[in-house]
Design a protein that fits this description.
The complex is a heterodimer.
Chain A: E1 6-17, H1 21-29, H2 34-41, E2 44-55, E3 59-63, H3 70-74, E4 85-90, E5 93-94, H4 100-109, E6 111-114, H5 126-130, H6 132-137, H7 141-154, H8 170-183, E7 188-192, H9 200-217, E8 220-225, H10 228-234, E9 237-242, E10 245-250, H11 252-257, H12 262-268, H13 273-276, H14 279-282, E11 284-285, E12 288-290, H15 291-295, H16 298-305, E13 308-313, E14 316-321, E15 333-335, H17 340-349, E16 352-357, E17 360-366, H18 367-374, H19 376-380
Parallel strand pairs in A: 3-8, 3-9, 6-7, 7-8, 12-13, 15-16
Antiparallel strand pairs in A: 1-2, 1-4, 4-5, 9-10, 11-17, 13-14, 16-17
Chain B: H1 11-36, H2 38-53, H3 56-71, H4 74-89, H5 93-123, H6 125-140, H7 143-154, H8 158-183, H9 186-194, H10 199-228, H11 230-235, H12 241-251, H13 254-288
Helix pairs in contact in B: 1-7, 2-5, 3-4, 3-13, 4-13, 5-6, 5-8, 5-10, 5-12, 6-8, 7-8, 8-10, 9-10, 10-13, 12-13
The chains are: A alpha/beta, B mainly alpha.
């Protein structure tokens, strides 16, 4: 990643709650712990030395249990909460230096937010709620209505624009919240436990919808959650927060297999790996031959170097191994982006499946490979 | 015999000092204050004159329409008409209109002053911690205690009457405006701020609309308290139905007091129903957004 890719940089942010923040900061710098600071100064340490950067177009998940400071942290990005110390740079600009007018402009067009309990105005229709951002931006009403309708269509709420929030289910209300946030056309989207209040089925629908929208719009998303499965599913990178301190920042795989400390390790232990890992993480690349090439004599040579060879003929695929160099059986295939769990039904019927990358065969996934990927100890070894 | 409480302070000297001080204020600033409150007197006078000038059937029709538009209930509207008819039939129409004028003027002043105060209180915990005990005192201090200085300042008449009424009736609207705004869902307020609303946009677009049912309840209470002050206000020259009750007491005429008393109750019922129905409609609007 080059420097220009950094969209948001969080630089040593501290947040102290209480009446003596200066004393608390001094105590922290002197090496006091959270409990000690509370005892000495009566102040609560909300965030301690938070330091990370977020890249443009990335979905960055901040995850932690309640009380970890994640909701406090996300409110720093649009200054709903002011830090006690530190800087947050968005596009290289320190938002702490903004005066009241600049801050308003930044909140109107630079950043938008989706809330856990939706935060919709109960006395306004779905459409009026959606255009709240553009109206505050000063966009003319007709244009705002047009934009609002586009966003409602995007989230699948066309036809509901004249309903009121209370007439909709929780999932639909949150889609209004999402449409409202998208309507401002801001680059950065803050999502504060956006799907935590929804029931599990609706939640996974919303996750898929967010992924689709993100694939199209390429926003920089900061997503807060206490659900590790959700974090692994949505996040390009994940930050783990505990007691106001950052424990680890990394990709899902790094968090799962190289936990930085005991806390993260305990945290990830319960994760359902079959949903958190993808075929991409477990398969082995093997040579792919056409029907004509396979008829030649290079197959045997290739099988000496590789565990298997794929012979592709259109969508029909065979896998040749040294045990079965002349297999004629058709083998099922799975996309590299599918979770390992999705390959289980196929692997139950067949020892091997072909993994497709961008529509063309790339390698094979065997039962052993899948098991090995799922067993943590094998990974660590 | 038990011991008397020892006299620690010379209260007579203190009281004389207070009385002299107040007399000095009255002598030096009484006229200025009276002139300052001239517009208030004009407002009350104009309202009274207008209500008494308006033909009775127009007034009844107007109030009936108001009741119906608030409640959408024919029975309620019908009973309002009957009650007003009774007031007219027993010869208390003009007195009733004077009372309504006093009540409305006091309510208008209370709302105009009280809602902004309530909004300020909701914004500042510091102000709230000062204002709450003051409001408690205003509501519990016996009315006659502050009637004395008002009468001394302005002389008996309509100005002290309306001021005393406002003083007595304003606490609920302040309290409930403050409460209503504080009860607005924090996340909704946070959302509108996150989208870049200025503090005044936040107030107008979210806080006041969502607090409206509570504010309406406050206005309703204020109206009722203003009406309950009319008898006392009549002692210092407000006239109206209260004066009839007062005369009933002075002349020991049970009938006069009773009839005027019933008329006051009827007015209270009518205005309470109108205000409550509006409050309910505001609430419903929030729930179903109709």
């Amino acid at each position: 990643m080059t420097v220009s890719d950094v969209k948001i940089q969080v630089d040593k942010v501290y947040k102290i709650f209480g009446s003596r923040p200066d004393d608390a900061m001094a105590a922290l710098h002197a090496g006091a712990g959270k409990a000690e600071v509370l005892q000495k100064t009566g102040c609560i340490v909300g965030l301690k030395g938070i330091d990370f950067s977020i890249h443009s177009g990335e979905t960055f998940v901040i995850m932690g249990l309640s009380g970890s400071g994640k909701s406090t942290l996300i409110r720093h990005f649009n200054r709903l909460i002011e830090p006690t110390a530190g800087r947050i740079l968005v596009d290289g600009r320190n938002i702490m230096d903004m005066n009241a007018k600049e801050l308003l402009a930044f909140r109107r067009s630079g950043i938008s937010m989706v809330f856990q309990r939706f935060g919709l105005l109960p006395h306004q229709t779905v459409l009026e709620n959606t255009i709240c951002g553009p109206i505050l931006q000063g966009v003319d009403r007709r244009e705002a209505l047009k934009r609002g309708m586009e966003q409602l269509e995007l989230v699948g709420l066309k036809g509901f624009e004249n309903r009121f929030p209370r007439q909709l289910s929780g999932g639909m209300q949150q889609r209004v919240g999402l449409a409202r946030a998208l309507a401002t056309q801001a680059d950065v989207l803050l999502m504060d436990e956006a799907f935590s209040a929804l029931d599990p089925l609706i939640k996974s629908d919303m996750q898929e919808q967010l992924k689709e929208i993100q694939a199209r719009l390429k926003k920089t998303i900061i997503f807060i959650t206490h659900d590790l499965d959700e974090a692994l599913h949505l996040g390009d990178r994940i930050a783990i927060l505990k007691d106001g301190e950052l424990r680890q920042v990394g990709t899902g795989e790094e968090i799962l297999f190289r936990p930085a400390d005991d806390y993260v390790e305990r945290f990830v232990r319960k994760v359902d790996l079959s949903r958190a890992l993808y075929a991409n993480d477990a398969f082995a690349k093997v040579p792919v031959l056409t029907q004509a090439e396979a008829a030649g004599d290079q197959t045997a040579a290739l099988l000496r170097q590789h565990p298997a060879v794929i012979v592709a003929h259109g969508t029909e695929m065979r896998v040749l191994t040294s045990c079965e160099p002349h297999s004629t059986r058709r083998v099922a295939h799975i996309d590299a982006a599918a979770t390992l769990g999705q390959s289980f039904p196929l692997l139950a019927g067949d020892k091997t499946v072909v993994v497709m990358d961008c529509g063309s065969p790339a390698g094979i996934l065997t039962r052993e490979m899948a098991f090995k990927a799922l067993s943590r100890s094998a990974r660590a070894a | 015999m038990a011991d008397n409480f020892p006299e620690l302070v010379d209260t007579r000297g203190l009281r004389f000092a207070i009385d002299d001080g107040f007399s000095w204020v009255v002598a030096n600033y009484g006229d200025t204050l009276e002139r300052l409150l001239g517009p208030l007197l004009k407002l009350l006078g104009a309202m009274e004159a207008f209500l008494q000038w308006l033909p009775w059937y127009v007034t009844i029709a107007g109030i009936a329409l108001l009741t119906y538009s608030a409640s959408r209930n024919l029975r309620m509207t019908g009973s309002a008409i009957v009650m007003l008819f009774f007031i007219g039939a027993v010869g208390l129409w003009n007195d009733a209109m004077a009372t309504v004028a006093l009540m409305l003027a006091a309510t208008v002043v209370s709302v105009v002053v009280g809602i902004p105060l309530g909004i300020l209180m909701a914004r500042s915990d510091w102000l709230r911690s000062i204002a709450l005990p003051l409001l408690n005192i205003m509501q519990t201090l016996p009315i006659f205690v502050y009637l004395i200085p008002f009468v001394m300042l302005f002389g008996p008449g309509k100005i002290p009457a309306i001021l005393a009424t406002v003083f007595f009736a304003i606490p609920p609207v302040i309290r409930l405006t403050d409460l209503g705004i504080r009860q607005v869902d924090g996340e909704v307020v946070e959302a509108i701020v996150a989208f870049g609303a200025t503090p005044s946009q936040k107030l107008v677009k979210v806080q006041i609309p969502l607090a409206l049912p509570t504010i309406m309840a406050g206005i309703n209470q204020t109206t009722m308290m203003a009406l309950s002050m009319v008898v006392i206000a009549s002692m210092i020259g407000a006239g109206g139905l209260g004066y009839q009750v007062l005369q009933g007491i002075q002349r020991l005429e049970v009938s006069r007091g009773l009839v005027a008393g019933i008329a006051i109750v009827f007015l209270a019922v009518i205005f309470d129903r109108i205000a409550q129905s509006y409050g309910r409609r505001a609430q419903k609007h929030l729930e179903h957004g109709e």
